[in-house]
Amino acid sequence: MLVKYHLVGFPMATLEAPPHSLQHQEIPPSHRILVVEDEVSIRETIVLSLQEEGYEVYAVDDGRDALALLQEFSEDPGQAAVDLIILDIMLPQVNGLDVCRSLRFGGDNTPILIVSAKGSEMEKVTGLEVGADDYITKPFSLKELVARCRAMIRRQGLAGNNIAPFRKFRDLVLYPQECRVLMRGEEVSLAPKEFRLLELFMSYPRRVWSREQLIEHIWGIDFMGDSKTVDVHIRWLREKLEQDPSQPEYLVTVRGFGYRFG
């Protein structure tokens, strides 16, 4: 069996699938993954592994092409968006961190998994702080990579089950697909992590979330920073949303447990 994959900026590549290929198994509707990696051998290995799991895979070798392809998808109503981006940091033209910043600044909340040879704590923190959802260090296990992709897409799917044109609570309205928030009719400017926190809270009103649960959902399981970062982001949200941040009506502290919305 010959496997072909979409490779923007390169000729169509062909790879021979291993004997354990899923060619005779029934594969569920495909999720789309974009791989942004400039090392050919790593890129092709990742692509083939993901295709073996039934994913539809696009691959590019630099950040500029990645942004161009995502822009093309967003402007074409006949094209489905990608469900996950696997992103290297060290890329020609536009590096991975700048790709991540650009997407988040533009309101794109597609899950991003950074794959990088830079494995220091500071590098991981930086990647997560600019908007990545997870971080895996080279060299890595392909099984672990696929498992992380599966988990991230699954979490995104669970969130997607709750997507509505808007969510409203009292004077607060959130538009998930527009990444927009209105408080008493006035637009509120939120950073990506603040928006995603608020969206999660409003998707599950009155559910109590621990710091650890919020970190796993918003920052990813490999977050290396202090759990107090949750408190900082909650404080920032209260300052932007609450009439009296010291007596919150929306983001409520449940002493000894965590936080809830409403």
UniProtKB/TrEMBL annotation:
Q: Which GO terms describe its cellular component?
A: cytosol; protein-DNA complex
Q: Which residues form the Response regulatory domain?
A: 32-153
Which UniProt key words apply to this protein? DNA-binding, Phosphoprotein, Transcription, Transcription regulation, Two-component regulatory system
Organism this protein belongs to? Synechocystis sp. (strain ATCC 27184 / PCC 6803 / Kazusa)
Residues the record lists as 4-aspartylphosphate modifications: D88
Q: Which domain of life is it from?
A: Bacteria
- Give an example GO biological process: regulation of DNA-templated transcription
Instruction: Please report a single Pfam family linked to this protein.
Output: Response_reg
Q: Tell whether Amino-acid biosynthesis is among the UniProt keywords.
A: no
Q: What is this protein called?
A: Sensory transduction protein RegX3
Where do the OmpR/PhoB-type domain residues begin and end?
A: 164-262
Keyword flag Lipid metabolism: no
What lineage, starting at the top, does this entry show? Bacteria, Bacillati, Cyanobacteriota, Cyanophyceae, Synechococcales
User: Which InterPro entries does the record match to this protein?
Assistant: CheY-like_superfamily, OmpR/PhoB-type_DNA-bd, Sig_transdc_resp-reg_C-effctor, Sig_transdc_resp-reg_receiver, WalR-like, WH-like_DNA-bd_sf
